[in-house]
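Final report, Chapter 2: Outcomes

The project's central promise was a pipeline that accepts a single protein chain and returns its three-dimensional structure in a standardized token representation, suitable for archiving and comparison. That pipeline is now operational. To close this chapter, we reproduce one record exactly as it appears in the project archive, with the input sequence first and the structure output second.
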Amino acid sequence: MKPNRASSVAAAALAAVMFSGVSWAQPSTRMADPLGPAVRCVQEGRFVVTDVGRLSVSVTSRQVATVDGPLTVSLADGYRLMLQMPGHSVPFVNLKFEASRPEMAEADRLAVRAQLLAMDERRPAGQAPLQPIQRMGVETLGLHQPSLDASGPLSWVTMMVPARHVIATAYILNAQPGQRAFATFAEYESLRDEALELVHRCLRTSG
């Protein structure tokens, strides 16, 4: 089954945000490391972390698209991790941890929320609407493709911890049938939920 045009446009928008020009460096010259505990927590999980990059000190903000135009999100620090399933050579999760500047944290949270709401308005037919969830101090907003036939990322999930000024975004990636770790959509959902639960736990416990 071929993805429809709306689905392809949505996938292209996801990819554009995922790989837009934010500079990641390794190692970083930063002194403090507020996100380090969450990164190490993920590394201790059962997923294989194949790449870790830290946000360049020269990058202090990024732009997000909303229905009211672009908004700025502050970046005090950040990490990007690529996760694979054990025994597989293709990435399964592109994960970002970002720390906001404390004085901008609430504005950043509202900007990222507005970005997801704008994407929700453009979701293709068959895709479930955005459903914000509050659990254990973490606000989760997720958009999910309805099948494995869609091009681009299968899920975009953002988790925000207002008390710690932290935003995590997980892009759950598709792959060719012979390369991915799942054969059915139900298997994908199970692995996706396992990865997201790991991120959620690491955000809660790595303060």
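Archive annotation: Helices lie at 5-18, 36-43, 105-121, 185-205.
This record, like all others produced under the grant, will remain available to the consortium after the project formally closes.
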